[in-house]
TrEMBL record:
Broadest EC class assigned to this enzyme: isomerase
NCBIfam families linked to this entry: recQ_fam
GO biological process: DNA recombination; DNA repair
Official protein name in the record: ATP-dependent DNA helicase RecQ
Occurrences of domain Helicase C-terminal (ranges): 245-397
Organism in which the protein naturally occurs: Auraticoccus monumenti
Pfam families given in the database record: DEAD, Helicase_C, RecQ_Zn_bind
GO CC terms in record: bacterial nucleoid; cytoplasm; replisome
PROSITE patterns according to UniProt: HELICASE_ATP_BIND_1, HELICASE_CTER
Family stated for the protein in its record: Belongs to the helicase family. RecQ subfamily.
């Protein structure tokens, strides 16, 4: 979560921001050379956004690139890496399998590519860290940055470009925060600040702002995809008990031809539904983090090859997966946030053909999500971890013996990992290292995280229960201000959206001049300050209702007449 002391947003963060002001004159960037290299080396004609990203990078400008999986994000940094002058291109990615695929692909194109991971031996590592030439790509996972030796060796290569894949992982606003990414800002400084491209498939405006801040991106060119998924017909179904839920899932799968995904929150339900689907004659498999790595790999390969019709999975399946012909995504249970839901349902219909996305939900789903929200550690537990770290003489939490820490503190692995992650995040935001202030800071940060997650759950409930256009709800959440209903979702097809929109217009009209005042005063992306809740950003303005993401209070839906009439909310 952005620290209020250093809060900022990327310059001019609107869809027009992709029209950047980097030095892209013919002298700075040879556009014909870019197009020719794309064709001859990679066999591609560039899309407009790829050309924009490459031109910005070669002109020396940082780039924040938000495009869906499979759209061709990797070509942006690969093409820029081939054309950049100087050292290699450093690619930070958490997906080892994807790293291996890209190393193989680049090698087949006659380029040099290496990977640094736990799977490589010392000889391969030494070879990778000795290759400092241009047209070379070095892939590494963020956890490799925990090793001081690796950081020094990478810095010595003087990379010409740095690509940060799955960049939303650097943001604690994001739904997949990974503290190992926090070391990137320090590393980028040691590298002499070469141009950086941060890539992600999906990110709400606060996440984009936090990514730019955490990575220290300077006036980044923002290249955004349209968040709309025009081929997906969204719907939701309330399930008052588990038998209704099971029936709804099986009916939805039976009604749709082709391959599809069913997402569950629990491993047990994934296995149960896969068995039920097989009982109906469908080729169904299940996937979750509790399976052995080899078994997960086989299940994934069967689905990607089309041998499995329906894959029932937890959220462990999906990052980096690019399968264009998925015809349906069914959520048997509501996920913990619109961020997660949008990413998972967006795996349907990537080929542009019609697809469906059904959300089955019940009040128990949201109670379960609240139960699994990260707990706030006790100050004594944080102090115990700090004391144990001090006794080991370790400078960085990533290099300590976790087993020794568990024994010294009496904490379980999950609780210990949580505290270490919070410590890494707090230290990245503070200059001091006093134990008392660190303990207080960690506890306060954990409380912020929990508040944010609880309000994300509330936003997911709002999506499930909204009588209005579901596609528009998600677009607003991700910063797209369009007001036109999609015409495809269940709310639009039933006429519910039209009724809701008409009621909203009547309320604003009945408010007269006062209604016009609040409509014109607070728009999407407007920075605001609430008398009690502090600073925040408007993420949705619909009729007489405002949804604001507050730095300290998470997502809150406010009644516009009340907050304006009582002077509770002011634009900043």
């Amino acid at each position: 979560m952005p620290d209020q002391r250093t809060r900022h947003r990327p310059a001019d963060e609107r869809r027009t921001a992709a029209r950047c002001t980097a030095d892209t004159s013919p002298d700075a960037v040879d556009r014909s050379r870019i197009e020719e290299t794309a064709r001859t080396v990679f066999g591609h004609e560039l899309r407009d956004w790829q050309r924009e990203a490459v031109t910005s990078l070669l002109g020396g400008r940082d780039v924040l690139l938000v495009q869906p999986t499979g759209a061709g994000k990797s070509l942006a940094y690969q093409l820029a890496g081939v054309l950049a002058e100087g050292g290699p291109t450093l690619v930070v990615s958490p997906l080892l399998a994807l790293q291996a695929d890209q190393v193989e692909s680049l090698t087949q194109k006659g380029l040099r590519a290496h990977r640094l991971s736990s799977a490589e031996g010392e000889r391969a590592r030494a070879e990778a860290l000795a290759d400092d030439g241009g047209r070379t790509f070095l892939f590494l996972a963020p956890e490799q940055l925990a090793r001081e030796e690796t950081r020094r060796a990478v810095a010595a290569l003087r990379p010409a470009l740095v690509a940060v894949d799955e960049a939303h992982c650097v943001s604690s606003w994001g739904h997949d925060f990974r503290p190992d990414y926090l070391r990137l800002s320090e590393l980028l400084g040691a590298l002499g600040r070469p141009p950086v491209i941060a890539l992600t498939a999906t990110a709400a405006p606060p996440v984009r702002a936090d990514v730019a801040e955490r990575l220290g991106l300077h006036d980044p060119a923002l290249v955004l995809a349209e968040a709309d998924r025009p081929g997906i017909a969204l719907s939701a179904r309330h399930c008052h008990d588990e038998s209704v839920r099971r029936e709804a899932v099986l009916e939805a799968v039976a009604a749709t031809a082709g391959q599809g995904l069913v997402y569950t929150r629990t491993r047990a339900l994934a296995q149960e539904l896969a068995a039920a689907l097989r009982g109906q004659g469908r080729e169904a498999g299940h996937y979750h983090a509790g399976m052995a790595a080899g078994a997960r790999q086989r299940v994934q390969e069967d689905f990607m090859a089309g041998r499995t019709e329906v894959l029932v999975a937890t959220s462990a399946f999906g990052m980096g997966i690019d399968k264009p012909d998925v015809r349906f995504v069914v959520h048997a249970q509501a996920p913990d946030s619109p961020d997660t839901y949008f990413q998972e349902v967006g795996r349907a219909g990537r080929d542009g053909q019609p697809a469906t996305g059904l959300l089955c939900h019940s009040p128990d789903d949201f109670s379960l999500a609240r139960f699994f929200a990260p707990a706030v550690p006790k100050p004594a537990q944080v102090a115990a971890v700090l004391g144990a770290l001090g006794r080991t003489g370790a400078e960085e939490e990533g290099e300590v013996d976790r087993a020794a820490l568990r024994e010294a503190t009496g904490l379980g692995e999950r609780r210990l990992a949580r505290i270490l992650n919070l410590l890494a995040e707090e230290r990245a935001h503070t200059d001091g290292d006093a134990r008392t202030s660190l303990v207080e800071g960690v506890v306060a940060r954990a409380e912020q995280h929990r508040t944010l997650q609880q309000t994300r759950i509330d936003m997911m409930r709002r999506y499930a229960e909204t009588p209005a256009c579901r596609q528009r709800f998600l677009l607003h959440y991700f910063g797209d201000e369009r007001e036109e209903p999609c015409g495809r979702c269940d709310s639009c097809r039933s006429g519910s959206t039209a009724e809701h929109d008409a009621a909203q217009r009547r309320r604003v009209e009945e408010a007269g001049a006062e209604g016009a005042a609040w409509v014109g005063r607070f728009g999407v992306d407007q920075t605001v300050r609430h008398r009690d809740l502090g600073a925040g950003v408007v993420v949705e303005a619909e009729g007489d209702r405002l949804t604001v993401l507050f730095d300290q209070g998470g997502y809150r839906t406010l009644d516009a007449p009340t907050v304006v009439g009582q002077d509770l909310l002011e634009p900043v």
